[in-house]
Design goal:
Helix content is 33%, strand content 18%. The strands form four sheets. Strands 5-6-4-1-7-8 form a six-stranded parallel sheet. It has a six-stranded parallel sheet with strand order 11-10-9-15-16-17, with helices on both faces. It has a three-stranded antiparallel sheet with strand order 13-12-14, with helices on one face. With 359 residues, it is α/β, with parallel strands linked by helices. Helix 9 runs parallel beside helix 10.
Length: 359
Amino acid sequence: MNIKLIKEAGSLKGKRVIVRVDFNVPVQDGKIIDDLRIRVAMPTIEYLKNEGARVILISHIESIPSLELVAEKIGVKFVKDFMNWDGKIEEGEVVLFENLRTNPGEKANDPEFAKVLASYADIYVNDAFPVSHREHASVVGVPKLLPHYAGFQLMKEIENLSAFFNPAHPFIFILGGAKFETKLPLIEKFSNTADYIFVGGALMNDVFKMRGYEVGKSLVSEKEMDMKNILADQRIIFPTDVVVDSGRVSNVKKVEKDEIIMDVGPASIDAFADKIKTAKFILWNGPLGLYEKGFKDQTLKLAKLIMESGAKCAVGGGDTVAAIESLKVENPNVFISSGGGAMLQFLEEETLVGVEALG
C-alpha cells in the first residue's frame, strides 16, 4: 500500500496538523471504563507535540454526547464550537474538537463540512483504524483536501493484520460474537488458508439449529443462510458442549427447549487446546459466550491459552480485548487491534475506505 507514515512529512514545527483519532470509548456513570483507543493514539499525539506541531484532534463518541470528558482525561484544550473556532493554537499545543457527529455533515460525508475541518490545518493524519471503514467526512473527505499521512497506530493495524493474508502454518482462526450473516464471508475466505477455524459465540447456535439440534431460546440469526460448505468442512470446528443459562454444562445435542445457550463448554476448549499450543498464527475476533452477562469463563480460558502460546496473534473486538487485557500478561507476539467491525472488514476486503484515502 502506498501510504506514508507521519514521520515522512518532514519538519512539522509550527505546522497545523489535524488528526482523526477514535476516542469513541465506553463511558459509565461519568467514567471511561475502557481507554484502549485513547492509549493507542498517544504515540502519534506525543510525536506531533514533540515535533512542535499544532495538533487538532477530531473524533466522534457514541456512549455520551460530548467529548469534553476525554479532553479532561488527556489534559488538552476542548473546542466546543469547532465550526466557528478562531484557530488560535500554539506550537506543541493540542486541542480536541467536540463530537464530530453533532454535525450531520460528518456521517453524510458533506464536502462543505470537510472543507471547514481542512481549513484549520496544513496536514491531515488518520490514526483512527476503528472508524476507517466508514465513508465519513473526517475519514475520506478531509484527506482529499490536505497532504495526508498515517499515524503510528493505523500503520500498526495495517501491518499486523496484513500478515494474516499470507500466514505461517499452522494457522488458526477463532470467531465468536453474533451476526453470522456478516461473518460468513470471512469464514469462507479464511477456509482457504486456515488450518482450523473454531466457531463460538452466538454464531454456533445457527449451526446447531441447521443440524437439527435443540437451541431452546438461544439467540439465532433471523436470516436463513446457506451453510452446507461450512458444515461439510472438517477444518471448521464447532463446540461439542455448551453452558446454558442455569449454569448447566450440556452436550450440544441435549439442550432443553426452555434453555438459553450462554457459552461454549469447557470440554470444547480443552479439546482445542493442543491445536492452539502448536499454532504459529492465531487470529481471534469475538467472545465465545455472552461475556457482558458474566459468561466469561471459556473466553478467559482461551485468552490465557493464546497469551501462553508462542504464536503470532491478532485479537480484536471489545469483549475479546477485555478478556486479553484482564489477564495483565505481556506478550509481544500478541497484537491487540483497536477495531472490531473495521478489523473484520479489513480482513475480508484487505483494505478500507479510510486506508484508500491515504494512498
